[in-house]
Amino acid sequence: ITEAPGPLKLESPPLGKVPESEDDETVDFPVVNRFFDLGSLHLLTTATLAKLRELSPGTTFDPRRFRPNMIVDTEDASGFVENDWPGKVIAIGDEVRIKVMMPTIRCVVTTRAQDDLPSDPTVLKTVAKHNSANVGVYAAVERGGTVRRGDSVELVD
Questions:
Q1: Nearest in space to 50 (alpha carbons), one of 2, 6, 8, 89
Q2: Which of 46, 71, 94, 148 is the most exposed place for a label (fewest CB within 10 A)?
Q3: Is the pTM for the entire model greater than 0.90?
Q4: What is the pLDDT of residues 15-24, one digit of tens each?
C-alpha cells in the first residue's frame, strides 16, 4: 500500500465513525455490519494511474481526482489490473480481508478543479474512452484489522 497524498482518510458508512489514527501510519478497518449500495472502500492501483497517464500524457491524473481510500502499488503490473478483481478477496497485511464488489464508475466530478488541480474534461473523456468510465474498484471489509503503510496486498480468492 502506498501513501495517498495527504493524510489517509477513510469514508465511513452513513452515521458511522471514520476510523482514526494517531500516528498516520496505521488505520483500523472495522467490520461494519451495514448494507452498502456500492462499497465502503475504493481502491485504486498505480498501474491504472500509469496507464491513464500513458493514454493522455498532457493530462494530470492525480489520485485526488478519484478520491480513493487506498492506493495499491502494483509494482511492474500494467494496464487496468483491478478490472479483474470484482468477486475476489484481497488480503491486506496479516489481518484485513476485503471483498471486491465492482468497478468504480467515474463521473464529471473527476474533471472539476480542486485545490491546485485545474478543471480538466480530458480526465473523464480518457477514462470513458479507454476503460468504460471506470477507475478503481469498490470493496467491502470482510475481516477487519489494522492496515500499515507498506503492508502486502494479495489476491487470495
A1: 2
A2: 94
A3: no
A4: 333 444 455 5
